[in-house]
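Worked example
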Amino acid sequence: MSGKGGEKVETKVSTKVEQSTDEKGRKVQKTTKTTVTTTTKNGSKSTSTKTEVKTEYVGGEAPSTSGKSKDKPLTDGLSNLSVKGGSKLSSSEKKKFRDEALSRHNTLRARHRVPPLRRSSKLEDKAQEWAERLLKQNKMEHRPNNEHGENVAFKFASDKTVFPGDVITDMWYDEIHKYNFRDPGFKSGTGHFTQVVWKNSTEIGIGVATDGKGTLFAVANYAPAGNFRGQFEENVPKPKK
Protein backbone atom coordinates (compact mmCIF):
# COMPACT_ATOMS: atom_id res chain seq x y z
CA MET A 1 0.00 0.00 0.00
CA SER A 2 1.09 3.62 -0.50
CA GLY A 3 1.47 6.20 2.23
CA LYS A 4 1.92 9.94 2.26
CA GLY A 5 4.46 11.72 0.09
CA GLY A 6 5.16 8.74 -2.14
CA GLU A 7 5.87 6.40 0.75
CA LYS A 8 5.32 2.70 0.17
CA VAL A 9 4.28 0.75 3.24
CA GLU A 10 4.18 -3.03 3.34
CA THR A 11 2.91 -4.95 6.34
CA LYS A 12 3.26 -8.68 6.94
CA VAL A 13 1.52 -10.41 9.82
CA SER A 14 2.24 -13.94 11.00
CA THR A 15 0.54 -15.84 13.81
CA LYS A 16 1.76 -18.98 15.54
CA VAL A 17 -0.28 -21.01 18.02
CA GLU A 18 1.33 -23.52 20.38
CA GLN A 19 -0.34 -25.71 22.99
CA SER A 20 1.17 -27.47 25.98
CA THR A 21 0.18 -28.83 29.38
CA ASP A 22 1.31 -27.26 32.65
CA GLU A 23 2.37 -29.06 35.81
CA LYS A 24 -1.25 -29.18 37.02
CA GLY A 25 -2.48 -30.87 33.87
CA ARG A 26 -4.14 -27.78 32.41
CA LYS A 27 -3.99 -27.04 28.69
CA VAL A 28 -2.11 -23.84 27.93
CA GLN A 29 -2.26 -22.08 24.58
CA LYS A 30 0.38 -19.56 23.51
CA THR A 31 -0.42 -17.33 20.54
CA THR A 32 2.41 -15.28 19.04
CA LYS A 33 1.52 -12.55 16.55
CA THR A 34 4.34 -10.81 14.68
CA THR A 35 3.81 -7.70 12.55
CA VAL A 36 6.64 -6.51 10.30
CA THR A 37 6.15 -3.11 8.64
CA THR A 38 8.52 -1.97 5.89
CA THR A 39 8.41 1.65 4.72
CA THR A 40 10.14 2.71 1.51
CA LYS A 41 10.63 6.41 0.73
CA ASN A 42 13.00 7.95 -1.79
CA GLY A 43 14.78 4.63 -2.19
CA SER A 44 15.40 4.25 1.54
CA LYS A 45 13.86 1.43 3.56
CA SER A 46 13.05 1.24 7.25
CA THR A 47 11.58 -1.73 9.07
CA SER A 48 9.76 -2.00 12.38
CA THR A 49 8.68 -5.19 14.11
CA LYS A 50 6.07 -5.76 16.79
CA THR A 51 5.53 -9.07 18.53
CA GLU A 52 2.57 -9.85 20.79
CA VAL A 53 2.21 -12.96 22.93
CA LYS A 54 -1.04 -14.14 24.53
CA THR A 55 -0.95 -17.07 26.95
CA GLU A 56 -4.17 -18.57 28.28
CA TYR A 57 -5.78 -21.69 29.66
CA VAL A 58 -8.09 -23.16 27.05
CA GLY A 59 -10.60 -25.94 26.57
CA GLY A 60 -12.32 -28.10 29.12
CA GLU A 61 -12.53 -27.39 32.82
CA ALA A 62 -9.39 -26.52 34.72
CA PRO A 63 -8.68 -28.74 37.73
CA SER A 64 -9.54 -27.33 41.13
CA THR A 65 -6.62 -26.41 43.37
CA SER A 66 -8.69 -26.65 46.55
CA GLY A 67 -10.15 -30.11 45.97
CA LYS A 68 -13.59 -28.80 46.99
CA SER A 69 -14.84 -26.84 44.01
CA LYS A 70 -13.99 -26.43 40.36
CA ASP A 71 -12.97 -23.21 38.69
CA LYS A 72 -14.95 -21.98 35.73
CA PRO A 73 -13.25 -22.95 32.45
CA LEU A 74 -11.92 -20.45 29.97
CA THR A 75 -13.05 -21.78 26.61
CA ASP A 76 -12.43 -19.12 24.05
CA GLY A 77 -9.74 -16.80 25.30
CA LEU A 78 -10.12 -13.10 25.92
CA SER A 79 -13.76 -12.91 24.85
CA ASN A 80 -14.83 -14.78 27.98
CA LEU A 81 -12.96 -12.60 30.44
CA SER A 82 -14.86 -10.14 32.58
CA VAL A 83 -12.60 -7.12 33.00
CA LYS A 84 -13.76 -3.87 34.55
CA GLY A 85 -10.44 -2.06 34.44
CA GLY A 86 -8.09 -0.87 37.13
CA SER A 87 -5.39 -2.74 38.97
CA LYS A 88 -6.17 -4.86 42.02
CA LEU A 89 -2.53 -4.88 43.12
CA SER A 90 -1.28 -2.76 45.99
CA SER A 91 1.76 -0.53 45.61
CA SER A 92 3.88 -3.05 47.50
CA GLU A 93 2.66 -5.90 45.27
CA LYS A 94 3.51 -3.92 42.14
CA LYS A 95 6.95 -3.17 43.55
CA LYS A 96 7.50 -6.85 44.32
CA PHE A 97 6.52 -7.80 40.75
CA ARG A 98 8.86 -5.16 39.31
CA ASP A 99 11.72 -6.23 41.57
CA GLU A 100 11.25 -9.86 40.52
CA ALA A 101 11.13 -8.96 36.83
CA LEU A 102 14.15 -6.65 36.96
CA SER A 103 16.22 -9.14 38.92
CA ARG A 104 15.36 -11.91 36.48
CA HIS A 105 16.13 -9.70 33.48
CA ASN A 106 19.59 -9.00 34.84
CA THR A 107 20.26 -12.62 35.77
CA LEU A 108 19.40 -13.65 32.22
CA ARG A 109 21.39 -10.79 30.69
CA ALA A 110 24.43 -11.87 32.69
CA ARG A 111 24.24 -15.24 30.92
CA HIS A 112 24.82 -13.37 27.68
CA ARG A 113 27.58 -11.14 29.10
CA VAL A 114 25.61 -7.92 28.60
CA PRO A 115 25.30 -5.11 31.17
CA PRO A 116 22.41 -5.06 33.67
CA LEU A 117 19.38 -2.85 33.16
CA ARG A 118 18.63 0.10 35.42
CA ARG A 119 15.14 0.93 36.61
CA SER A 120 13.64 4.06 35.05
CA SER A 121 10.73 5.73 36.83
CA LYS A 122 9.75 7.44 33.58
CA LEU A 123 9.57 4.14 31.71
CA GLU A 124 7.86 2.54 34.70
CA ASP A 125 5.06 5.11 34.67
CA LYS A 126 4.68 4.66 30.93
CA ALA A 127 4.53 0.86 31.20
CA GLN A 128 2.07 0.97 34.10
CA GLU A 129 -0.26 3.31 32.23
CA TRP A 130 -0.29 0.96 29.24
CA ALA A 131 -0.82 -2.16 31.36
CA GLU A 132 -3.83 -0.47 32.99
CA ARG A 133 -5.21 0.46 29.58
CA LEU A 134 -4.82 -3.08 28.24
CA LEU A 135 -6.69 -4.43 31.24
CA LYS A 136 -9.46 -1.88 30.85
CA GLN A 137 -9.78 -2.54 27.11
CA ASN A 138 -9.38 -6.29 27.58
CA LYS A 139 -7.07 -6.26 24.57
CA MET A 140 -3.48 -7.24 23.81
CA GLU A 141 -1.64 -4.70 21.68
CA HIS A 142 1.51 -2.62 21.57
CA ARG A 143 1.52 1.12 22.17
CA PRO A 144 1.41 2.82 18.76
CA ASN A 145 4.32 5.04 17.68
CA ASN A 146 6.39 3.92 20.65
CA GLU A 147 9.94 5.26 20.69
CA HIS A 148 10.93 2.67 23.29
CA GLY A 149 11.28 -1.08 23.10
CA GLU A 150 8.28 -2.96 24.46
CA ASN A 151 7.38 -6.45 25.61
CA VAL A 152 3.75 -7.21 26.43
CA ALA A 153 2.29 -10.28 28.10
CA PHE A 154 -1.15 -11.59 28.98
CA LYS A 155 -1.76 -14.34 31.53
CA PHE A 156 -4.92 -15.92 32.85
CA ALA A 157 -5.09 -18.36 35.75
CA SER A 158 -8.40 -19.98 36.60
CA ASP A 159 -7.21 -20.38 40.19
CA LYS A 160 -6.61 -16.59 40.33
CA THR A 161 -2.85 -16.99 40.68
CA VAL A 162 -0.93 -13.74 40.26
CA PHE A 163 2.08 -14.73 38.20
CA PRO A 164 5.32 -13.26 39.62
CA GLY A 165 7.57 -10.98 37.63
CA ASP A 166 10.28 -13.57 37.08
CA VAL A 167 7.77 -15.99 35.52
CA ILE A 168 6.63 -13.35 33.01
CA THR A 169 10.26 -12.55 32.20
CA ASP A 170 11.04 -16.24 31.69
CA MET A 171 8.08 -16.48 29.33
CA TRP A 172 9.66 -13.81 27.13
CA TYR A 173 13.15 -15.29 27.44
CA ASP A 174 12.00 -18.82 26.56
CA GLU A 175 11.85 -17.73 22.93
CA ILE A 176 15.63 -18.30 22.94
CA HIS A 177 14.88 -21.86 21.84
CA LYS A 178 13.69 -20.51 18.48
CA TYR A 179 16.59 -18.12 17.95
CA ASN A 180 19.42 -19.10 15.59
CA PHE A 181 22.70 -17.62 16.83
CA ARG A 182 24.45 -18.89 13.69
CA ASP A 183 22.14 -16.73 11.58
CA PRO A 184 21.48 -13.67 13.78
CA GLY A 185 18.57 -11.44 12.93
CA PHE A 186 14.89 -11.06 13.51
CA LYS A 187 12.90 -14.28 13.45
CA SER A 188 9.20 -14.68 14.09
CA GLY A 189 8.52 -15.59 17.71
CA THR A 190 11.88 -14.41 19.08
CA GLY A 191 11.43 -10.65 19.51
CA HIS A 192 10.64 -10.80 23.23
CA PHE A 193 13.78 -12.79 23.97
CA THR A 194 16.05 -10.54 21.91
CA GLN A 195 14.70 -7.41 23.61
CA VAL A 196 15.25 -8.92 27.08
CA VAL A 197 18.98 -9.43 26.38
CA TRP A 198 19.56 -6.57 23.90
CA LYS A 199 23.00 -5.25 24.81
CA ASN A 200 22.43 -1.59 23.96
CA SER A 201 19.28 -1.31 26.08
CA THR A 202 20.25 0.19 29.44
CA GLU A 203 16.97 1.11 31.16
CA ILE A 204 13.68 -0.64 31.86
CA GLY A 205 10.28 0.24 33.25
CA ILE A 206 7.77 -2.45 34.19
CA GLY A 207 4.01 -2.19 34.60
CA VAL A 208 1.50 -4.78 35.80
CA ALA A 209 -2.28 -4.77 36.14
CA THR A 210 -4.73 -7.46 37.20
CA ASP A 211 -8.47 -7.66 37.79
CA GLY A 212 -8.05 -9.86 40.86
CA LYS A 213 -9.83 -12.71 39.08
CA GLY A 214 -6.87 -14.34 37.36
CA THR A 215 -6.32 -11.92 34.47
CA LEU A 216 -2.95 -10.19 34.29
CA PHE A 217 -1.34 -7.84 31.78
CA ALA A 218 2.35 -7.00 32.03
CA VAL A 219 4.33 -4.43 30.05
CA ALA A 220 8.06 -3.75 29.93
CA ASN A 221 9.48 -0.69 28.18
CA TYR A 222 13.18 -0.50 27.29
CA ALA A 223 15.54 2.34 26.38
CA PRO A 224 17.20 2.52 24.01
CA ALA A 225 14.87 0.24 22.07
CA GLY A 226 16.18 -3.05 20.71
CA ASN A 227 15.41 -5.32 17.75
CA PHE A 228 16.92 -3.19 14.99
CA ARG A 229 17.72 -5.02 11.78
CA GLY A 230 21.44 -5.32 11.12
CA GLN A 231 22.30 -5.04 14.82
CA PHE A 232 21.37 -8.48 16.18
CA GLU A 233 24.81 -10.08 16.05
CA GLU A 234 26.41 -7.42 18.25
CA ASN A 235 23.45 -7.07 20.62
CA VAL A 236 22.31 -10.68 21.11
CA PRO A 237 25.42 -12.69 22.01
CA LYS A 238 25.31 -16.40 22.76
CA PRO A 239 24.78 -17.40 26.41
CA LYS A 240 27.69 -18.66 28.44
CA LYS A 241 28.11 -22.43 28.45
Q: What stands out?
A: Strands lie at 8-21, 27-41, 44-57, 118-119, 149-156, 203-210, 215-223.
